[in-house]
Specification:
Rossmann fold; Heat Shock Protein 90; 17 helices; 13% strand; elongated
């Protein structure tokens, strides 16, 4: 709230900041008057007047200096009162005293003295009207005696001059009132702006704190939820090879499906959060767009067949410069969306070059989308024709993620749909002539042979170690488990273990030690760059960069057993 004390304090600041300039002008005018009237009036009286003006100027300069050394917040009215008294004395010196000294010859120089006094009243209007009493205290004793003197003379010209001086004085007093109001309004606006700025800073601090709290929450969520989910997936994967009964196997598959659904939800929420907080970095490179599309089409063939959907592709050989990982996420979400929301139809994925642009189209001839719903499909958790929230139809986050990724990658995205006739999503990417990276279909994990492979596992969570041990042994791997670096190195040095085919390690271990630090120690011991898989629930770019710098592979928890098996095979081979 803006107080009177705050306004008066600001008025003090303005008055005393402008005073030196006004005082310099006063001294210059005094010297001009002295030089002009020295031989025309009593030099003694003129010297006395000049001495008084100089003395007052010195006093006012000392007031300014003292004001600048002291804070005026606690007593602004006292400083304003001092300024009013000084202005009044100055007005008396210029109006009454000067008029008294020059009055014997005023008939001759009436115009000059009138110009000097009215000029001073006009010139002091803006600086002194900051505080209204300040201007009144100066202008009235400066001009009112001049008007009285003019009225006292017998000639009509002096009487008319008196009227003009009076009108001028009244006008100046009125203008000073307007100037004063404007100054006060300006001061209030400045304080309001300061308050707004302070409020903005507080809101910014609150937002930053909320963002930090959010990041802390996400980190805790990533760790506390991903860890048990990861262990659950591994246990279910290990259990799969031990169950042959069809009835029990069906129950196990349903459990795995539920676990995967929970993992998908967690991953989608984490992705949305990272995209909204701009934590996703783009790593563009040359890549084969045709290879990427063919690989993704192959991934969804079985899911499409289960819904009696035919996937057709018409894909040209084109290369683009983009982030293949993020682009693949966009394409998977779009294709998955087309399959989940349709049945007994056809989905066509096409890639063609049009006017130098790679045009990707994902077209289905399914149920389509109503025109008034097209603007809503990219909103979070918004689902069409799913009031019962059937999980098999998705989470309502896929297209929201696609929209954010399209903005991040600067890939134009458009959608066209007719209710009952189908939907078409289109992406446009600039083509490139150089092909450096290709994508091929992932090998069927059921054909992977890991018999006899020696794998070291480092994780401080017992449940993760135990579940991963069970899974790896179900693949007939030799396994060495450790909770930290000390335990691992003790076992290696005591039992002379050979170099492993692969090391699987969590990123965050006990006592603020990272998996990268343990891996570095193990590599130095064996004097070779061993293949390493870092498994973590933290998806920050800092960890991604650190893992890449140390020539390791990264995968996020929770990871399905089949996916883990494929990655392990890739690394050990």
């Amino acid at each position: 709230m803006i107080t009177i004390n705050a306004i008066e304090t600001e008025q003090c600041q303005i008055i005393y900041r402008q005073s030196p300039i006004f005082l310099v002008v006063t001294i210059l005018l005094m010297l001009l008057i002295d030089s002009y009237y020295w031989d025309k009036v009593s030099s003694g009286l003129l010297m006395l007047w000049s001495t008084a003006v100089i003395a007052l100027t010195i006093v006012r300069l000392m007031m300014v200096k003292r004001f600048n050394r002291q804070a005026a917040e606690n007593e602004p009215r006292r400083w304003l009162f001092k300024s009013v008294i000084a202005s009044f004395i100055s007005g008396v010196l210029w109006g009454i005293c000067l008029l008294f000294i020059i009055s014997p010859i005023l008939n001759i120089d009436a115009l000059l003295i009138t110009l000097i006094l009215t000029g001073m009243a006009a010139g002091s209007l803006v600086p002194l009207s900051t505080y209204l009493a300040n201007y009144y205290a100066f202008s009235i004793p400066t001009l009112f005696p001049l008007a009285i003197f003019c009225y006292s003379q017998s000639s009509f010209e002096f009487f008319l001059s008196g009227i003009l001086v009076t009108i001028f004085l009244v006008a100046m007093l009125g203008f000073s009132l307007l100037v004063n109001r404007n100054v006060i309004e300006t001061i209030k606006l400045r304080f309001e702006n300061v308050d707004l700025l302070e409020n903005f800073k507080k809101q910014k601090e609150l937002a930053e704190k909320a963002n930090i709290d959010k990041s802390r929450f996400l980190a805790a969520t990533s760790h506390d939820l991903r860890q048990p989910l990861h262990a659950l997936d591994l246990y279910l994967g290990a259990l799969t090879v031990k169950i042959s009964d069809d009835e029990h196997l069906e129950l196990l598959n349903k459990m795995r499906a539920s676990s995967h659904a929970l993992s998908d939800l967690l991953n989608a929420l984490m992705d949305m959060s990272r995209l909204d907080s701009a934590e996703v970095d783009v790593h563009n490179k040359q890549c084969s767009l045709s290879g990427l599309l063919l690989s993704i089409c192959h991934e969804y063939e079985q899911q499409a067949a289960e819904r009696n959907i035919e996937i057709k592709s018409s894909i040209a050989e084109l290369t683009v410069y983009t982030d293949p990982v993020l682009l693949a996420r966009m394409l998977r979400n779009l294709i998955s969306n087309a399959i989940k929301h349709n049945q007994d139809c056809k989905v066509t994925i096409s890639l063609a070059k049009q006017a130098g642009v790679a045009k990707i189209k994902i077209i289905d001839d399914g149920i389509g989308i109503a025109e008034d719903e097209l603007s809503n499909i990219f909103s979070e958790f918004y689902q069409l024709n799913n009031p019962e929230r059937d999980r098999t139809k998705g989470l309502g986050l896929g297209l929201a993620i696609v929209k954010r990724l399209s903005s991040l990658l600067n890939i134009p995205l458009s959608v066209d749909s007719k209710l009952g006739r189908g939907t078409q999503f289109s992406l446009s990417l600039a083509t490139s002539e150089i092909e450096l990276e290709d994508f091929s279909a992932i090998e069927n994990v059921e054909q992977v042979d890991l018999v006899g492979k020696f794998i070291m596992v480092i994780d401080d969570e017992y449940a993760v170690r135990d579940s991963l041990k069970a899974l790896l042994r179900s693949w007939q791997c030799e396994v060495l488990m450790a909770a930290d670096e000390q335990e691992l190195m003790t076992m290696i040095q005591t039992d002379n273990y050979p170099s492993p085919d692969l090391i699987i390690s969590d990123y965050r271990l006990r006592n603020n030690v990272t998996g990268i630090e343990v891996i570095t120690t193990v590599r130095q011991f064996y004097k070779q760059t061993l293949p390493v898989l870092i498994v973590t629930g933290d998806s920050s770019q800092t960890i991604n960069d650190e893992v890449a710098r140390n020539d390791c592979q990264l995968i996020l928890k929770p990871v399905a057993s089949n996916d883990l098996k494929a990655i392990v095979k890739q690394l050990v081979s």
